[in-house]
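Quick one, tokens below. Sequence please?
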């Protein structure tokens, strides 16, 4: 074997290097597509702003830019190993109550679309540069090509992270609020269905029976029927009236109790505790009242927790503590029952947790088997101002 002969050159680059080279060579066609798209959208949208189609066209172009950004993130993920979360979608299709101009403004103010447009606009000169350098290095600077590719793709990685990433807290907060809004809407719809069902099956049915009973009593009275029979029918109708009134009071209490509106959480929670089958000690340390919405959530949270204590805990005693700590309203419900309560236990705990989460609250259960159970709820404190009180009628 001739020792002076050198072995043939081989393509010995590692796999990630070839991926980086492929990314750099694809920069030019992708940059051309993005640049042409941005220039077209801006020229048409801005140029036609004097007409009715200019701004809608621009908003639609920003939505299209989002799709280009999605494609670029996928390319960076596959070839550069850059893991960038997808931005939250615009809630245009889910805001049924929003009008055309509200949706238009949300589209025009989309920060993700504008950052993607900026990314595609500045990429053209960079795409030309990286394509030429990479192509030249393949034939001229082969030994140092891995280092060149790594340096150039590091700039690409920085651009993707800087311009195509979600807006950190803002984007995450938008997604969270959209999810929470869905929970609130679903909860409100369920409450309306419950009220409708209670009215239909309860008070409405009793009032129908009352009308029929009084009608029959009237006919008997006109026919000269025995007065004792008519009096019995009227007495029965009177009983139906009292039952219907009680059901309406219970229904009104379930919507929003008058004692809560008139006297606040301390009195309202004491009223709830008095109806619990377990002795409950209530302690409320509040020097003022939060807004009605927060007060209502606190009331219904404690009310449902005490219902669980009555039905499922087997406890002999319980306590409710409510106090304010800085800008938070804290609630603690304790019982000495059998324990084992869980969010997925089928006792409504998950619904309570979702309801509190929808208003930036917290819901924590500490309930080991054998007890005791300690549930802590935390709500944001929003001060009640003059004119914010609502009278319940």
């Amino acid at each position: 074997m001739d020792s002076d002969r050198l072995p043939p050159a081989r393509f010995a680059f590692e796999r990630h290097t070839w991926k980086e080279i492929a990314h750099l060579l694809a920069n030019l066609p992708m940059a051309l597509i993005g640049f042409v798209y941005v220039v077209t959208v801006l020229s048409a949208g801005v140029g036609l702003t004097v007409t009715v189609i200019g701004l809608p066209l621009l908003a639609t172009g920003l939505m299209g830019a989002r799709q280009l950004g999605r494609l670029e993130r996928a390319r960076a993920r596959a070839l550069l190993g850059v893991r960038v979360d997808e931005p939250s979608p615009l809630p245009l299709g889910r805001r049924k109550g929003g009008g055309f101009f509200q949706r238009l403004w949300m589209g025009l103010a989309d920060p993700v679309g504008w950052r993607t447009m900026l990314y595609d606009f500045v990429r053209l000169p960079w795409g030309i540069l990286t394509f030429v350098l990479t192509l030249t290095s393949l034939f001229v600077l082969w030994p140092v090509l891995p280092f060149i590719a790594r340096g150039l793709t590091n700039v690409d990685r920085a651009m993707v992270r800087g311009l195509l990433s979600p807006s950190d807290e803002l984007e995450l907060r938008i997604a969270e609020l959209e999810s929470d809004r869905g929970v609130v809407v679903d909860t409100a719809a369920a409450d309306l269905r419950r009220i409708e069902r209670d009215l239909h099956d309860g008070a409405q049915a009793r009032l129908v029976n009352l009308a029929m009973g009084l009608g029959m009593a009237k006919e008997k009275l006109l026919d000269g029927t025995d007065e004792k029979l008519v009096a019995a029918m009227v007495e029965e109708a009177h009983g139906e009236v009292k039952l219907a009134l009680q059901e309406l009071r219970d229904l009104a209490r379930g919507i929003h109790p008058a004692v809560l509106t008139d006297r606040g959480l301390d009195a309202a929670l004491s009223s709830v505790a008095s109806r619990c089958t377990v002795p409950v000690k209530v302690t409320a340390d509040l020097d003022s009242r939060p807004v009605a919405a927060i007060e209502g959530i606190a009331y219904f949270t404690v009310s449902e927790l005490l219902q669980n204590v009555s039905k499922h805990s087997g406890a002999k005693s319980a306590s409710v503590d409510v106090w304010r700590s800085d800008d938070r309203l804290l609630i603690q419900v304790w019982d000495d029952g059998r324990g084992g309560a869980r969010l997925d236990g089928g006792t409504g705990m998950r619904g309570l947790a979702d309801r509190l989460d929808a208003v930036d609250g917290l819901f924590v259960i500490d309930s080991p088997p054998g007890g005791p159970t300690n549930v802590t709820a935390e709500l944001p404190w929003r001060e009640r101002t003059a004119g914010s009180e609502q009278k319940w009628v």
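The beta strands are 280-285, 318-325, 328-335, 362-366, 373-380. The first helix runs from residue 15 to 47.
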